């Protein structure tokens, strides 16, 4: 069993959203296999995965746009499975914002309140508050098409928040924005979410976005939730080769399991020996082939007696750091990336140099090899 | 949650309208198999004589002539419409685009009578073309264009042109200009790029346009009636004569049914032809 | 390199000029009858001749005072108003249903309703005529209206369907997530956004119905005669340019309506020859 409880955060606060074995099929294809997930009240949970992994399907099921083929969904303790979307009290921010083009910004934001029959005076006041919250107080009379992408994004957020939803759902909300704007919108969204304390489910395929914004991340692929954990757990202690490869860059080194001792195991990598956690090696016997996953930033150049030997192939300058690509015959794909800070790397390890590589004992994760 | 709200509300009127069309078609079908009683508007009993009569050389010839006129019109229309549709889709000048669109589409909404009448003035013996030809001394006597297949086809091309332009323009507008640019960058001249890239990609639109033009021409009545003047017969004019001159509705019905069958056969053939082409166009 | 480039550029030039000349010729072919009609409409003499010897407005006066035209115009307005409005309601509802739902018989129903695009109008006219005879009904307005509804329905359906396709389905989901029930979402979001498509569908239907000739010839009686039928009967009896005058009015009004439609609705998008961004 995993040593990381998947719902460690939700044990400390009441449950906001609970997904109990939810399954969704489209024809013969299963888009979601029995998903189980508990999201704490006020928590920022990200569903992360490549396109087609089932994350948007899960979001649509929570919103009520799709009906599940099995399982139950609870929001704040009440069963939602049979509730139509218009009675769910869930705010949604769509990928393309889905602002009503024929209504002004203020009318867009006030739409949900009008549907609830809120008195006119109160609508005006709450719309003004919501627009102030997203820093668009002066834009109420504009039409959506007169706004920039970032402004439309804020209107969509205000529209979803003004109804005081029990849950806020965001479907790839930043994918249409350019890189700089995306960064500032991420910070702003995070601050607003903190301030209001609204339970938030955020769908993205962008792993750096997920790592920077989330309280916890659920990594999905092929319609299954692979791992749930804090960004640090997901990055440093992946429980699954897919998670390790999808979140961040990784070097894969074929190795062999030598022996297990309690929580730890020893793995033979060429002539060297590496200590790894045993939790990811359930069911493997000594002698089994394993893959060692090591992040580029965990790799380092050793003086002479590292566990790997190779030849520097080329350098990729990335601004704050440099990726040194090293040809290592023993590595999967014949190549290893070493991430080093600063611009002096090309001078210290020129192309063609024979180098020795090493990594710290705690920085490697081993999985059963999927290579035959 | 009801996943199909308003379904009954929205579909019921459509069902009623469909029933009305179906009833009209059923009425024709039923009459086609009834005997003609001369002098009476009511048909006689069951009979296949109407379909036997279709085989008579007189009527068979009208069928052949109709199909010939339809094919001729469809292909001439294609040749005339293609450059216009191409210009319409590719020009970046907004005013010119609007002008071409309005010019191409307006005749569609004028109705057959107005358009055909205009062509009578153009083609008539004292009409526009003959006046010019005689005024310039190019001909002694008027060139006979009224009551000829040529005159009918010219007017029919004009009648069919808008729908062909619309269908071709729809197909062309779905073709990314970058394909042609890519061809040019690979060394094809503009003509070659068009012939090897754009033209093949627009083939589904061409087939759809030609088959629709065929159906429309087949349906045309005012043009062959007014310009053909009884000397160029098509199935439509024959049906009208049978119905309103001799009140032989059973035979008119049999002709109509055969006409529909012919149209559907042509459309089905066009669909078969379009199938492999759609794979080219898919992207 | 340079030497090869220049002839190529000249070749492209020539191609361009030739291309536009062809387009100009085609446009001339389309416009020619309208121009000729306009000239002859102002011709003073009763026989069609070119060029006209003297000019007059008498044919316009006659077009306005000829009784059958006035009656046909009125009949046409009545029939068009009913037929296009009924077709709008029927066609818009059904276009919505085909866009959103799957139901039994959808394909068959769609095929039946679009069949007037390929079934000759004389066949449909004959069918309704025989149908009326079978139930011993006379050729009333109702018969003409039903016939016209069937004929223009495909155009309304297409126009509304294209608008629905261009509509972002997520807008309705957004409305639902904000608490709008399906009827409310339809009324406050979908319908307002469909207005251009509904209007252009109605306009197409109205113009087509008003100008429909072949089927009308079969299903109208003396009392329900529409304008095109009256015009056709006029040509059979008289050879003077009254009809040319009427045609000019027709062309001007139709082109004007379409220009307006293009201005406000974007005809290109409605006809699907250019894409909504």
Description:
The complex is a heterotrimer of chains A (372), B (283) and C (277). Chain A has 372 residues and is of the alpha+beta class. Chain A has 2 domains: 229 residues, 3-Layer(aba) Sandwich (Rossmann fold), CATH 3.40.50.300; 120 residues, OB fold (Dihydrolipoamide Acetyltransferase, E2P). Helices cover 24% and strands 35% of the residues of chain A. Chain A has a 6-stranded mixed beta sheet, with helices on both faces. A 5-stranded antiparallel beta sheet of chain A has the order 13-12-11-14-20. In chain A, strands 15-19-16-17-18 form a 5-stranded antiparallel beta sheet, with no helix packed on it. In chain A, a hairpin with a 2-residue loop joins strand 1 and strand 2. In chain A, helix 3 crosses helix 4. In chain A, 42% of the residues are buried. The N terminus of chain A is likely disordered. With 283 residues, chain B is mainly alpha-helical. Chain B has a single domain, classed as MetI-like (MetI-like fold). Chain B is globular. By secondary structure, chain C is mainly α. Chain C folds into 2 domains: 31 residues; 213 residues, MetI-like (MetI-like fold, Orthogonal Bundle), CATH 1.10.3720.10. Chain C is built from 12 helices and no strands. In chain C, helix 1 crosses helix 11, helix 2 crosses helix 11 and helix 3 packs across helix 10. The model of chain C has no long low-confidence stretch (mean pLDDT 87). Chains in contact: A-B, A-C, B-C. Chain A: One of its GO terms (cellular component) is ATP-binding cassette (ABC) transporter complex. Chain A: Keywords: ATP-binding, Cell membrane, Membrane, Nucleotide-binding, Translocase, Transport. Chain A: The complex is composed of two ATP-binding proteins (PotA), two transmembrane proteins (PotB and PotC) and a solute-binding protein (PotD). Chain A: This is Spermidine/putrescine import ATP-binding protein PotA. Chain A: Part of the ABC transporter complex PotABCD involved in spermidine/putrescine import. Responsible for energy coupling to the transport system.
In short:
The complex is a heterotrimer of chains A (372), B (283) and C (277). Chain B has 283 residues and is an all-alpha fold.
Number of structurally distinct domains of chain A? 2
CATH architecture classification name of the largest domain in chain A = 3-Layer(aba) Sandwich
In CATH, the architecture of chain B is Orthogonal Bundle
Number of helices of chain B: 13
Strand order of the largest sheet of chain A: 6-7-8-3-9-10
- CA-based shape of chain A: elongated
Biggest interface? B-C, 93 and 96 residues
Strand content of chain A: 35-45%
CATH superfamily of chain B: MetI-like
What structural category do the secondary elements of chain B indicate?
A: mainly alpha
Cα-atom Rg of chain B, whole angstroms?
Answer: 23 Å
Oligomer type? heterotrimer
CATH top level of chain B? Mainly Alpha
InterPro entries (chain A): AAA+_ATPase, ABC_SmlMolc_Importer, ABC_transporter-like_ATP-bd, ABC_transporter-like_CS, Mo/tungstate-bd_C_term_dom, P-loop_NTPase, PotA-like, Transp-assoc_OB_typ2
Subunit structure (chain A): The complex is composed of two ATP-binding proteins (PotA), two transmembrane proteins (PotB and PotC) and a solute-binding protein (PotD).
Keywords (chain A): ATP-binding, Cell membrane, Membrane, Nucleotide-binding, Translocase, Transport
Protein name (chain A): Spermidine/putrescine import ATP-binding protein PotA
């Amino acid at each position: 069993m995993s040593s990381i409880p998947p719902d460690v955060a939700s044990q400390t606060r009441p449950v906001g959203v609970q997904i109990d074995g939810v399954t969704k099929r489209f024809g013969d294809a299963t888009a979601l296999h029995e998903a189980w997930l508990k999201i704490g009240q006020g928590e920022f949970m990200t569903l992360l995965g490549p396109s087609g992994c089932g994350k948007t399907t899960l979001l649509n099921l929570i919103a009520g746009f799709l009906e599940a083929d099995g399982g139950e969904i609870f929001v704040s303790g009440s069963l939602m499975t049979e509730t139509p979307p218009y009675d769910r009290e869930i705010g949604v921010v769509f990928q393309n914002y889905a602002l009503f083009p024929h209504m002004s910004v203020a009318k867009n934001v006030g739409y949900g309140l009008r549907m609830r029959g809120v008195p006119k005076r109160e609508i005006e006041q709450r719309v003004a508050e919501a627009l102030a919250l997203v820093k668009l107080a002066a834009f109420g009379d504009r039409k959506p098409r007169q706004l920039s992408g970032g402004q439309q994004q804020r209107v969509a957020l205000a529209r979803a928040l003004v109804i005081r939803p029990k849950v806020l759902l965001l479907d790839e909300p930043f994918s249409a924005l350019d890189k700089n704007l995306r960064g500032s919108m991420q910070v702003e969204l995070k601050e607003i979410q903190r301030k209001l304390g609204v339970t938030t489910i955020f769908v993205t395929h962008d792993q750096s976005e997920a790592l920077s914004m989330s309280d916890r991340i659920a990594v999905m692929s092929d319609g299954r939730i692979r791992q749930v954990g804090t960004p640090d757990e997901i990055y440093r202690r992946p429980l699954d080769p897919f998670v390790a490869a999808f979140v961040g860059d990784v070097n894969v080194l074929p190795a062999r399991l030598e022996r297990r001792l309690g929580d730890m195991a020893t793995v033979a990598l060429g002539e060297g020996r590496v200590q790894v956690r045993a939790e990811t090696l359930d069911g493997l016997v000594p002698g089994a082939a394993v893959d060692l996953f090591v992040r580029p930033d965990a790799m380092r150049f050793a003086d002479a007696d590292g566990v790997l030997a190779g030849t520097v192939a080329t350098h990729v300058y990335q601004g704050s750091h440099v990726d040194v690509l090293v040809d290592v015959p023993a590595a999967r794909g014949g190549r290893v990336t070493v991430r080093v800070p600063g611009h002096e790397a090309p001078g210290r390890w020129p192309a063609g140099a024979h180098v020795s590589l090493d990594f710290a004992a705690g920085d490697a994760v081993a999985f059963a090899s999927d290579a035959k | 949650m009801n996943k199909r709200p308003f379904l009954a509300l929205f579909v019921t009127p459509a069902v009623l309208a469909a029933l009305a069309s179906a009833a009209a078609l059923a009425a024709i079908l039923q009459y086609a198999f009834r005997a003609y009683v001369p002098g009476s508007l009511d048909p006689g009993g069951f009979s296949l004589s109407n379909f036997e009569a279709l085989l008579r050389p007189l009527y068979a010839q009208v069928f052949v002539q109709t199909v010939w006129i339809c094919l001729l019109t469809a292909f001439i229309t294609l040749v005339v419409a293609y450059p216009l549709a191409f210009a319409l889709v590719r020009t970046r000048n907004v005013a010119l685009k609007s002008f071409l669109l309005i010019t191409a589409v307006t005749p569609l909404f004028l109705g057959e009578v107005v358009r055909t009448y205009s062509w009578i003035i153009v083609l008539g013996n004292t009409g526009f073309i003959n006046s010019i030809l005689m005024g310039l001394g190019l001909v002694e006597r008027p060139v006979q264009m009224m009551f000829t297949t040529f005159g009918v086809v010219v007017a029919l091309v004009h009648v069919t042109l808008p729908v062909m332009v619309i269908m071709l323009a729809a197909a062309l507008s779905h073709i990314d200009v970058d394909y042609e640019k890519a061809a040019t960058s690979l060394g094809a001249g503009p003509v070659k790029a068009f012939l090897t890239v754009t033209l093949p990609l627009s083939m589904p639109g061409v087939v759809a346009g030609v088959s629709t033009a065929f159906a429309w021409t087949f349906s045309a009545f005012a043009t062959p009636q007014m310009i053909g003047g009884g000397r160029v017969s098509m199935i439509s004019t024959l049906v009208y004569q049978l119905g309103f001159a001799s009140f032989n509705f059973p035979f008119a019905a049999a002709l109509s049914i055969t006409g529909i069958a012919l149209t559907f056969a042509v459309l089905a053939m066009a669909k078969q032809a379009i199938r492999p082409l759609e794979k080219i166009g898919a992207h | 390199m340079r030497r090869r480039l220049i002839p190529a550029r000249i070749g492209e030039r020539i191609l361009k000029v030739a291309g536009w000349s062809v387009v100009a010729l085609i446009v001339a072919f389309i416009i020619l009858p309208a121009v000729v009609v306009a000239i002859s409409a102002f011709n003073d003499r009763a026989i069609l001749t070119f060029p006209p010897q003297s000019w007059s407005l008498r044919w316009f006066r006659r077009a306005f005072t000829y009784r059958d035209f006035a009656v046909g115009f009125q009949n046409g307005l009545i029939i068009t108003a009913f037929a296009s409005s009924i077709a709008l309601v029927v066609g818009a509802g059904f276009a919505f249903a085909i866009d959103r739902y799957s139901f039994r018989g959808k394909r068959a129903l769609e095929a039946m309703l679009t069949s007037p695009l390929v079934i000759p109008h004389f066949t449909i006219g004959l069918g309704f005529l025989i149908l009326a005879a079978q139930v011993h009904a006379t050729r009333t307005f109702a018969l003409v209206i039903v016939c016209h509804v069937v004929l223009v329905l495909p155009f309304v359906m297409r126009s509304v369907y294209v608008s629905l396709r261009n509509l972002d389905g997520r807008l309705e989901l957004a409305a639902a997530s904000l608490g709008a029930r399906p009827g409310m979402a339809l009324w406050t979001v979908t319908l307002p956004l469909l207005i251009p498509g509904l209007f252009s569908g109605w306009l197409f239907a109205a113009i087509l119905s008003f100008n429909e000739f072949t089927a009308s010839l079969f299903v109208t009686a003396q009392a329900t005669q529409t304008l095109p039928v009256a015009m056709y009967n006029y040509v059979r009896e008289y050879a003077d340019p009254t009809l040319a005058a009427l045609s000019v009015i027709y062309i001007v009004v139709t082109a004007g309506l379409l220009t307006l439609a293009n201005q406000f609705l974007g005809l290109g998008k409605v006809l699907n020859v250019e894409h909504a961004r």
